[in-house]
Design goal:
The chain has four helices and four strands. With 87 residues, the chain is an alpha+beta fold. It has one domain: Alpha-Beta Plaits. The strands form two sheets. It has a two-stranded antiparallel sheet with strand order 1-4. A two-stranded antiparallel sheet has the order 2-3. The longest helix is centred in the first third of the chain and has 11 residues. The chain is globular. The chain binds iron/sulfur cluster (SF4) (2 copies). The site of one iron/sulfur cluster (SF4) has 13 residues, from α2.
């Protein structure tokens, strides 16, 4: 019974994108390279004055983690919907 519920959750919940605002340099690589258009640049800046990205539509995220890999400043992480089960 419990396994059935877990399977349903994997299929329906998108991954979560978590930014580290202070590390971000506003290069917009994560926005540009996401094929699903999950991210967009916001009008908000961090303490250093860099423009920050934001999540436009997390439900479109495939969890491919390209944004995480491509960020030169390790400023975002993709949290898998079933991360609590993996750890
Ligand atoms: S994990 Fe993939 S689909 Fe999701 S926001 Fe990052 S690049 Fe886009
Ligand atoms: S790729 Fe990294 S540093 Fe560049 S805008 Fe995205 S989160 Fe910020």
């Amino acid at each position: 019974m419990e396994n059935t519920l877990r399977s349903e959750r994997k299929a329906t919940e998108p991954s979560r994108i978590v930014f580290n605002r202070d590390r971000c340099k506003g290069c917009s690589y994560c926005v540009y390279f996401c094929a699903k258009e999950v991210l967009e640049m916001s009008e908000e800046t961090n303490q250093k004055g860099y423009l920050l990205p934001k999540v436009a539509d997390e439900s479109k995220c495939s969890g491919c983690r390209l944004c995480e890999a491509i960020c030169p400043d390790f400023a975002l992480r993709v949290i898998s919907a079933n991360a609590d089960e993996e750890e």
